[in-house]
């Protein structure tokens, strides 16, 4: 199998790469990155990893990266306070998805946040307050992540999953709860360990439990 991973130089993406390499022994990972030097040495020198350097607006490089790929995994996310206006990441997703479809890549698992609404969500004061605060203090990031959700849902990809996250932490625990805001399972948990996110996304590849859905993931 061959996976393309986006956002693999960030703290969440690095864990995602390592989790994929651990779970799938016969895998080839294509890592599409802006700055290869930011990859840890154990990943950069791994024979099962192919590193392709490029920007998110480089259609030729993205096309190269998606050749022969089975699934695209994305840990891309906007910068909290320095995100430029104009929803650039949502535009990048539109570009990436069109190239995926051209190359017959029909499955995307992507990072989202609680700011992306879902029809299965119910009112929860803690999450309402958190998202409201984000919409004011991180306006550009808020608008971009919501636009990403809209782009993926409207993409006509055969298979997609948006894994929504609250506040990310570096705790090594991998135990998570998946559900929807206000469903009685998530309760008022507002943090998620990055290790848990990585494990959940890689497990979802084979489980397909959340196909064409957008669960919220929290640490248990």
Automatic annotation (TrEMBL):
It holds the Pfam family NAD_binding_10. GO terms for molecular function: oxidoreductase activity, acting on the CH-NH group of donors, NAD or NADP as acceptor. Residues 7-206 form the NAD(P)-binding domain. Belongs to the avfA family. PANTHER family: FLAVIN REDUCTASE (NADPH) (PTHR43355). This is NAD-P-binding protein. It comes from Mycena pura.
